[in-house]
Structures are given as structure tokens and as C-alpha cells.
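Hi V.,

You were right to ask for the full record rather than a summary. Here it is.
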Amino acid sequence: MIPCVLHTVQGKIDPAPNNFSFPSEGFDNLRRSTVDYTPDAGTITMFSTSWCGYCRRLKKQLDAKGIGYTEINIEEVEGTAALVESLNGGNQTVPTVLFPDGSAATNPSVSDVVARIGA
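Predicted structure:
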């Protein structure tokens, strides 16, 4: 069985500079989708799957801390698996979390989430 956590990636999600061209039209659509999933202040967006134990653990910890989140199942929402791949070096690694400042983290601890959203 392949674990749902392969490595940690933290990157800033910003619009492309004017002189940057995306490699394909599909990738440009992913960039716009990332902006669409950026959460409100004090909350996160978590990309997950129904079978991911790491996702279930993080949700339980977020609930215990009273941290709001929107969960997006990458197996059910079109385009989100590719978006997660773009954030994780080509891997569909979950949980992948988006923060209000546009940054992302893969399999963050609840203490990392608390620190990054200022809860």
C-alpha cells in the first residue's frame, strides 16, 4: 500500500509573472483553481481522500482545536488531483493544505497549522 504522505512541500502560490508562460492550457486552469480554493483568514482548505488516515487524523485535530477548514476530496472534485500534483512535485500527496496567505503545506502538523493561521 502506498502511504498518503511522501514528503513535505511548502510553497507560495502567486499569480505568474508577466514574462512566465505556463506549459499547457490545463496548467493555467490549475493556477486559477488554486486561487479559487484559497481560504478565508483563520481557516484552511485541505485536499484529501476518503481513505487517507493522515487526513482523518488532521481533521480530528483541527476539530479539537476549533480550527475551521474546507475539505476537498481530490477523487471527487474534478481538477483537484492535478492541482495537488502541481503543489507536490507531481505527486498526489494528501493531506495538502492551503493557507489564507496563499502558501501550501503537505501533511502539516496541527501545531504548524495553528502557527501559520495565527489561531
